[in-house]
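With this grant's support, the team has encoded backbone shapes as discrete tokens. A representative record is reproduced below.
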Amino acid sequence: MTSMNAKNDRAIWLQGPNACCSVPPAPLARPVRLILLGAPGVGKGTQAELLCQHFGACHLSTGDVFRTAKKCDNAGVSPAMAGALACMQRGELVPDEIVLSLIVERAKCLRCGGGFLLDGFPRTVGQAQALEDLLADQEVELDAVLDYKLPHKEILARLSGRRTCPNCKASFHLASLAPKIPGVCDHCGEILFQREDDRPESISVRLAAYAKNASPLKRFYKRRNLLVTIAAAGAPEETFARTIEALERRLASNHEPQLLCE
């Protein structure tokens, strides 16, 4: 499969079903439809970008939807989005039924002939069951659920080494992308800082919360023979190569039982 020449702005996904994408993906004879799982720090966002380039699919991230919504006023938003924004303003988790309503509003994206990578949803077994019913209604089948795994120690090293510029928002890493002058942004000269959620104690809490929610979700997809585990160690290009190898085996075998790619 080939990548898209121009980048899709994902307007339908980000703004709602009344919007139109500036560059709709070209319909493919065999669109790839995937769900991405992975703890914070495994590099899932980078893999999503590489997969979209490779397959020509859209990256459908619920996190992107919420971030976009926060930047807009509430005028013209759907009742589901208004409910989600209200929950976020109160510092509450958005309930399953509201998140599902947002996905239902964007069902056209799930039917897109270019395929999709669904990221950030589902997060619970209840959401997974609801998504399964929705995809059946849309006559769409998942190809795989990619589960990126990395040892706890390596995730701690990745996240705790990150430093961010408060001015231009550039990101650095003490080991892999260190600034030229320690503690100073290469681009604007501001003093770099460590985000609160990148401190080791915060990372451990986030990883424990992810594991608690993800374990039953993984069991759900393993029972449906959709779960494909990918080792996320090493450079992003190495993880991507393992991902493509596992996916090509799966697609070639027409969804026969899939060996885990460790």
About this structure: Residues 257-262 have pLDDT under 50 and may be disordered. The chain has ten helices and seven strands.
